[in-house]
Amino acid sequence: MSEIKLLIAEDDKEIRELLKKYLERELYAVDTANDGNEALYRFRQGGYHLVILDLMMPQLDGIEVCKAIRSISNVPIVMLTAKDHETEKILGLSIGADDYITKPFSIHEVIARVKSLLRRYMILGSEGEEPSQHLLIFKGIAIDPKAYTVHIEGSQTALTAKEFELLKLLASNPGQVFTKTQIFRQVWGTDYIEDDNTVMVHIRKLRKKIELDPSQPQYIQTVWGIGYKFSGEKA
C-alpha cells in the first residue's frame, strides 16, 4: 500500500505538534497547517487520505475549510473543537465532517478514530481491485460496497465515508429496523453513543443525497420510537 498522508489544520502549536508526533509514530506521513488558508492550499496539492480540522482557526475557520474540501473531495474529515455545545457538533457534521472530537481529548482516542476512518476509506479507495460481485441493487438505486459507489437512477452520487457506511448497513439488511444505538455501534465502531443527533444528522444528509423527496423518503424510513430501516424495492 502506498504511503498514507494526513493533514492536520490546527492553530494551537502545542496541539498540532502533539498530534503530528503521535500520528507519525503510527507510520503516517503528516503535514500541518496553522490556519485555514494554509490548510486549503496544502490540501489542493493533493494526495491526502484524511484531514483533521480545528473548528476555530484564523483566516478561514474549520467550517469554511470543511465546506471547501467537501466541494472537491470525500476524504474523511475529523473536526476538533474546544466548544462543547450541541449546535457546534451538529454544524460540523451537517457540512460534511465524518467525526467530531471535543478538546481536551485523549491522544489515543484520536488515533483510534483516525484508524477507524482510514480502514473504511482505504476499502473504498483502494485501486486495482475487481468490481464487487455483491452489488446491492434496488429500484432506482445501485450500491457497490467494494467500489464504494452509489448510483441513483443511473447517475453516481458522492457520499462521505460515514454516509456510505450508514447506507450500506441499512441496504444490506432491507426491512430490518436498526435503533440509533445499533447504527452508531456498526458505523462508528463503538457502543458509546454521545447523543441521538449524530445519527439523525447523517440520516438527514444521506436522504438529501439519495431521496427524490427527502421529506417523504422512499429508501430510508423512520420507524417512530425505534429507529430506521431501508425499504428499497429489489430490482
TrEMBL record:
GO cellular component, one term: protein-DNA complex
Residues found modified as 4-aspartylphosphate: 54
Keywords, alphabetical: DNA-binding, Phosphoprotein, Transcription, Transcription regulation, Two-component regulatory system
Predominant localisation class: cytoplasm
Domain of life: Bacteria
Positions of the Response regulatory domain: 5-118
Protein name (database record): DNA-binding response regulator, OmpR family, contains REC and winged-helix (WHTH) domain
